[in-house]
Design a protein that fits this description.
The structure is a single chain. This protein has six helices and six strands. The protein is of the alpha+beta class. It has a four-stranded antiparallel β-sheet. A two-stranded antiparallel ribbon has the order 1-2. Strand 1 (27-28) and strand 2 form a beta hairpin. The protein starts with a helix and ends with a helix.
Length: 195
């Protein structure tokens, strides 16, 4: 029902995530942030709005003062997001596997972490994009949708992006190595406490 409500307010496109992509298992990014099909739907909605704004900007019809409430909300979000917009317009992005994303400068759209599709290389669990590469991609996106000069220049405050697709809450360390690390820390504390 929520998906229908989101679709009703978005610009009309034929862009739909592939059924071949499965997000039945949620990815836990933090104690309170999970990536799931809802995260993919949110990302695709933002992508649809981005294409809408690009079309308006290219045709000279982008008039921020005449935006509807929805247009204003999405435009502001897209012009300030430093976490997902750097690859939002790449081909096939809606079919990439979901990932937890953190920005190195703490400039994520929600302040900590975000969920979006990401094209992992091979079987890697963690990846990152270098600062200069990411800043350039975000600045290019902001220019394409007609963000203000100030918003485009603010990319200099953006850090590198980190991407994770499993075991994100424990830095990718498996259960047994975690137990060994925890036991080592507890042992060290007990050793020094006794002395």
């Amino acid at each position: 029902m929520l998906i229908v409500a989101i679709t009703a307010v978005t610009p009309k496109t034929k862009e739909v995530p592939s059924k071949a992509v499965s997000d039945e298992v949620r990815i836990q990014c933090t104690k309170s942030v999970y990536c799931s099909d809802y995260s993919r739907t949110t990302f695709v909605t933002h992508r649809t709005w981005a294409r809408h704004f690009i079309e308006q900007y290219k045709s000279g019809r982008l008039d921020i003062d005449k935006f509807s409430a929805d247009e204003s909300k999405y435009y502001d979000t897209l012009c300030t997001d430093a976490t997902t917009t750097g690859f939002m317009l790449e081909e096939g992005v809606e079919n990439w596997p979901m990932a937890c994303i953190w920005n190195g400068a703490g400039t994520s759209a929600n302040g900590s972490s975000w969920c979006a599709p990401y094209p992992f290389k091979g079987e890697s669990v963690y990846e990152f994009r270098e600062v200069d590469e990411w800043r350039s991609a975000v600045a290019n996106f902001r220019l394409q949708i007609g963000c203000s000069e100030e918003q485009v220049e603010s990319v200099k405050n953006i850090g590198e992006n980190y991407f994770c697709r499993e075991r994100c809450n424990d830095l990718g360390v498996g259960d047994v190595p975690c137990l060994i690390m925890y036991a080592s820390v507890v042992g060290a504390i007990m050793f020094f406490a006794v002395e």
